[in-house]
Amino acid sequence: MSPVRPAFIAGNWKMNGALAANAALLEKLRTGLSLAREAAEIAVFPPFPYLDQASRLLAGTAILLGAQDLSDHADGAHTGEVSARMLAEFGCRYVLVGHSERRALRGETDEEVARKFGAARAAGLIPVLCLGETLAERQAGATLDVVFRQLDAVIAAHGISSLRDAVLAYEPVWAIGTGQTAAPEAAEAVHLALRQRLASQDAAAETPRIVYGGSVKADNAARLFAQPNIDGALVGGAALYADDFLAICQAVDP
Ligand code: 13P
């Protein structure tokens, strides 16, 4: 972790949760994080229907709210979609764009992800741009080609300055939900390459936080966070358990 960039720990709940379980989880996070000496910015990303509940339960705490996706349109005849403005109205500060599950399961293209990035920005939300290669792409030695292609689509659409205070999340697809975390040094190499690509185009763009996602757990978080270019984590499964998520948050500053 860098002393300059504040750490960011985000819990992506994916399509999990229920009113009672959410209330219990958020209450434990409220209590746990208010007792801790927090060195990190912490955010949770519940499914859309629970954003209002989470926003109310997190009021007055330092825990921030994010959404898992958004429409690339501002409003209108897009049945089933949710706009950036709506997310902002419900207290979201962040929104994930381009999560690999949406790229793989919903066929989101780099161009659509870039449009969503722009829609988030237009409504004042901070996009968390997810990038990552599949196992086949890694085995073919194409990791950097893939993450650069995904990054470059956003730069082409919105310019390098649009990334200055965004968050990048490097999530190798083969590490998501598999228990196979990337080796900290291997993840660091990708983070460093991403940072160098940003800096080569705009010195000020050196600053975005680049967090790692993919089977981050309480017992591997500190080793990941020890890398200079890993600025936090996008946590899936472990974010559903208060003790595990709190332990990951506390691994920022052991
Ligand atoms: P897991 O932590 O369950 O591997 O999920 C990572 C992820 O996809 C977060 O967005």
Brief summary:
With 254 residues, the protein is of the alpha/beta class. Helices cover 41% and strands 15% of the residues.
Tell me how many strands there are: 8
Instruction: Please give the share of residues in helix.
Output: 40-55%
Choose one word for the global shape.
globular
Which residue ranges are poorly predicted, with pLDDT under 50 across at least 5 consecutive positions? Answer: none
Main β-sheet, spatial strand arrangement:
1-2-3-4-5-6-7-8
What is the typical, i.e. mean, pLDDT?
Answer: 94
Figure out the total of helices. 10
- What is the radius of gyration computed over CA atoms, rounded to a whole number of angstroms? 17 Å
Tally of individual domains: 1
Strand content: 15-25%
CATH architecture group name: Alpha-Beta Barrel
CATH fold field value: TIM Barrel
The first-level CATH class is given as Alpha Beta
